[in-house]
Design goal:
Blueprint (H helix, E strand, L loop, with lengths): L17 E5 L5 E5 L9 H8 L18 H8 L5 H11 E2 L2 E2 L5 H12 L6
Amino acid sequence: MKRRLIVLLPLLAAVVVVVTWTTRSGKSTMISAADPEGKLSLVDYIHQQKLPCLQCHQLTTGSYGPGFKVVARNYKSNPQALATLATHIEKGYGFMPGGLASKEQAEVLADKIMKLNLNQ
């Protein structure tokens, strides 16, 4: 019998590390170890992180909670939109309970929500 060597690689999705810095334009930029290049869509990120967001929210239309594009529209005029939205995601707001996402996940979610194309 041949011996087989099985190598298990650590899952980057299990550990989320977020680095935030300010670009020349003054906008906050986030990079997540689970999405190092920021290429995952909002929905893909939610699935990857196994977050319960889609139980109440959809991308464009509301179900129990408002659609993500509605949220982005509501926050776009707020100069502190990223920080406010991330806090609301992490700690809860209105009918949405807190504790469903870590602080790091909430920051990435807020960033992805605010970057949604509202014209589609």
